[in-house]
Amino acid sequence: MTSDSKVTREILERFHNAFEMHRPEDLDDLIGEGCVLENTAPAPDGARYEGREACLTFWKGVASSADLVFKAEEIWASEDRGIIRWQLRWGEGEKDRTRGVNVMRVRDGKIVEGLGYVKG
């Protein structure tokens, strides 16, 4: 694993942990200027957010929701790209969950792109 890959993986782990631990403030130093986020909804393309503040506001809203329980299935990185495979629960029932993936890009130690996809 290259040093760029290690940095990318570390940043993605910190990013995902903010959601698992409901610590939106941990996102503050992870999101870069010019960030672009494509959310998983609404279908078919998802909402698009552009700019650091727009992405940070959206992600902080998700991370702060006590009703959402994220769990990482896998975090993978290569150079400036990374993938987070995750599970999301919002209730106790078998149908109260989904699985998805975020395709991420890191530049200069900050997340600058996050593309979200879910199993439909």
Written account of the structure:
This is SnoaL-like domain-containing protein. It holds the Pfam family SnoaL_2. InterPro entries: NTF2-like_dom_sf, SnoaL-like. This protein is of the alpha+beta class and 120 residues long. The protein has one domain: Nuclear Transport Factor 2, Chain: A (Roll). Helices cover 25% and strands 42% of the residues. A six-stranded mixed sheet has the order 2-1-6-5-4-3. The radius of gyration is 14 Å and the shape is globular. The model has no long low-confidence stretch (mean pLDDT 97).
How do you describe this structure in short?
With 120 residues, the chain is α+β, with helices and mostly antiparallel strands.
How many DSSP E strands?
Answer: 6
Helix content: 25-40%
User: Would you state the CATH class?
Assistant: Alpha Beta
Taken from the alpha-carbon principal axes, the silhouette is globular
**CATH-level-2 architecture:** Roll
The fold-level CATH name is Nuclear Transport Factor 2, Chain: A
| Biggest sheet features | 6 strands, mixed
Radius of gyration: 14 Å
Domains (count): 1
SSE order, as H and E?
HEEHEEEE
Low-confidence stretches: none
